[in-house]
Amino acid sequence: GKKIAVMTSGGDSPGMSGAVRAVVRQTLASGCISFAVYEGYQGLVDGGDMIKKMAWEDVRGWLSEGGTLIGTARCKAFMERPGRLTAANNMIEKGIDALVICGGDGSLTGADKFRAEWPGLMDELVQKGLRKEEEVRAHRHLNIVGLVGSIDNDLSGTDATIGCYSSLERICQAIDYIDATALSHQRAFVIEVMGRHCGWLALMAGVSCGADFIFIPENPPSENWEDDMCNVVKKHREMGKRKTIIIVAEGAHDRQLNHISPNQVKDLLSDRVGLDTRVTTLGHVQRGGPPSAYDRMLATLQGVEAVKAVLDSTPETESPVICIVENKIVRKPLVDAIAKTKEVAAMIERKDFAGAMKGRDAEFEE
Ligand code: ATP
């Protein structure tokens, strides 16, 4: 049977373990041989025991586990061609020429580059005497399928990434806890949430928790945002609200063009509105814990689809990424999804916020 490997790469997200479970089991159910690559691309470069053959029971119980049980890493060596040559050699040693990768845009970019280079890498392995011609003959084509695992929900072309709804759930829970104490003391809280350059988590947390004001990178505040925010908060207080919740997306804080720091917001609320204000950075609890039911479902359905995509592929097929669009699991060209995602990031960079908002939702077809 065909040998199909699965790996997780980049930042971890809840549901990644469930995705690995689905890929392993669908691989076996299809009569193929399953492998897991441990510690992301580092495992491919290191080879040996890091590329482990998987049995049905090896992934038992993984659906409800947070993070990724096969580990993830950021790997410098894989960024360079010699690292990828070593990785290819390790794969040929095991007879693997199909790889399902669950990760963010960086990981998927690396995967597609690997696929494009693969025939050249095969030639080089033979030229360097590392592999015999007959060893590589059956593996002239590398099959890549992407699964999007990220809490940020930052990939264009898919409505949800594996992990984003679990993270949102966790953020809402944390804000509920903060709400209770804020309400008791009539305090204001400025809460920083994750999401890198994407404001989805902050926006949806704001909607889900009834925040008073949010800051996201896609929609930077106006010139007089300080007055705007203070007026909104004052108005809410005058209406009888005993607590104030302001959400600052990590991207709104970090980006140079849109540098809203939680402490700056806190000082405004203290000095100009007269509120007893605290800052809470939620940090890595947002990434941890068991996946929500939605992410377990998404990871399972997409993992199954990824294996089907591997089995359907021909040397002419473009690498697909498995998406969810309007509740349907669909395949899209991986390169297009990444290009669109990068385009949106560039739009934010040059302050084309309307374009960025549109681009996040944009549909594109083959
Ligand atoms: P997250 O969005 O959670 O950070 P990510 O997949 O975008 O996840 P990255 O750190 O960008 O995370 O990428 C993970 C790894 O993928 C890198 O450490 C590197 O090994 C590999 N990689 C990323 N980009 C490339 C590339 N252009 N060429 C080759 N390998 C790459």
Automatic annotation (TrEMBL):
Belongs to the phosphofructokinase type A (PFKA) family. ATP-dependent PFK group I subfamily. Eukaryotic two domain clade "E" sub-subfamily. It comes from the Eukaryota. Residues 3-310 form the Phosphofructokinase domain. The active site is at D152. Substrate binds at S150, I151, D152, R187, M194, G195, R196, E250, R278, H284, V285, Q286, R287. Homotetramer. ATP binds at G11, R74, C75, G104, D105, G106, S107. Mg(2+) binds at D105. Catalyzes the phosphorylation of D-fructose 6-phosphate to fructose 1,6-bisphosphate by ATP, the first committing step of glycolysis. The chain holds residues 21 to 386 of 778 of the full protein. This is ATP-dependent 6-phosphofructokinase. Residues 1-366 are annotated as: N-terminal catalytic PFK domain 1. It is found in: Cytoplasm.
